[in-house]
Amino acid sequence: MPEHTLAPSPGRHPGTEAGMEPDAVLALDRRHVWHPYGPMPGTLEPLVVESAQGVRLRLARPAFGQRELVDGMSSWWSAVHGYNHPVLNEAAREQLGRMSHVMFGGLTHEPAVRLAATLAEISPGGLEHVFLSDSGSVAVEVAVKMCLQHWRSLGRPEKRRLLTWRGGYHGDTWHPMSVCDPDGGMHHLWSGALPVQVFAQAPPAGFDAGPDPDYLRELDELIGRHAHELAAVIVEPVVQGAGGMRFHSPAYVRALREACDAHDVLLVLDEIATGFGRTGSLFAAGHAGTAPDVMCVGKALTGGYVSMAATLCTPRVAEGIARGSVPVLAHGPTFMGNPLAASLANASIGLLLSQDWRSEVERVGSGLRAGLAPAAALPGVREVSVLGAIGVLRLDHEVDMTAATRAAVETGVWLRPFRDTVYAMPPYITPDEDVARIAAALCAAAREG
Fold first, then answer.
1. Where does pyridoxal 5'-phosphate bind (predicted)?
2. Phi, psi of 235 (to 5 degrees)
C-alpha cells in the first residue's frame, strides 16, 4: 500500500471513522491539511478541539496543563452567541428536516427571502437589494463586480479602479487582495499581477480623536483627482481588522460619503468583521450616521455555524447594471442562498435583536478595558485600545507566535496574535470572569511574545 494511502476500517467507507486518537489526528493533519496562512507541511502543531460549548473549546488532550480554553476569538469573529446554542441548533435541525440545499438559479425559498428582507430592513438606509454568497471574500468580489458593471452599463468603462486607504484587509481572493494594504500583508507577493488601485494614507488612529483637517482635505483631493477613473471607494468603517486592528474616527467615513457624492464615485463599506454589533453599533456605519451604496456582511451573519455572506446595494447601483447591454449580474455561487445557512442566519439575527445585545457588548468592552489597563505599563506595549467588544494590545515588535500562544493557553484562553498585535473579540455572551481571564491572557501573551 502506498505510504500516503489511509486504509479504511473493515465495513466502513473512507472518511467515516470516528473516535481517532489525537496523535492520529495530528499525524494525518500534518500529512494532508494545509492550514490558513501556513506552510505545507505545517511548522506549528495545532491544538485538537473535540467539542465546544458556550464560550469554551474542549481539547482532545491537555495542552500546557489546560483541557478547556475560553475562546477569545469567537472563531475569527463569527461565533457571537458562543457554541452549541440551543436556538441555533434547533434552527439547523428544523431546516435539515426540510432541505439542506437547493439551487438558487430559477428557484427560491422562504429562508433566503426572509434573510434578504431582514438584512434590507436592519441595514443602513437605502440598501434594498441583497446578493447572497458563501464567504466574505466572495462578497467583496461581488461588490467590486457590481460597481464596475454599474459604470460600464452607463457607458463609462474607464471608471474601473478602486480607492482605499492603507492598513485595510478585504479578503484573499483576487480583487479583494488588490485593495488590501500593499506593503503590510502577504499580498505584496502578487504585485505586478493584481490590478493597480489608488491608496490613500491610513486614517489617523483613534475612534474618539477629532478628525484631522489636513487628512480630510488630502482624502477629498485624492478622490477628486482620480474620480474620472474610480468606480468606487472601499474601506472598513471605523475598524481596520485583519490589516492591523486599528480604530479611526467615524468622521472619516462621513467624509468619504461626502467626497464620493461630490465626485460621482460609489462608496462600498466592508462590514464583514464589524457587522452585527461588534463595535457597539449594529453596523459600524451607524457610528458615522451614514450609508454606503454597497455593503458587505459575513462572519457573524450565521452566528459562526456555517459560511455565508451577503452584498447589499441601493436601487441606484442595481438600476445602473440593468441599463447595460448585459443587464444581469453575472455571478452565481453554487451554494448561493443555501437554505441551511439562511435559516441559521435568520435565527442568529433574531437571537441578537431579541436581547439587549448593546448592553452585552458594552459589558464585554468594559471588562476588557479594566483588565487591559495594566498592560500600558508592560515593556514592549505601545498601545492599548478597546472599542465595543474588541480589545487590542499593539506591541513595538513582531509577536513571537509560539511564545504568545503558549502564554495565552497556559492562562486558559485561546488567542490568535498576528504581526505586532495581540487582540481579542470574545463572544457577546462571555461571562465577566471569563472576560477578565481573556484580558489576563492578552497581557500574558504580550509579556511573553
1. 136-137, 270, 333-334
2. -145, 165
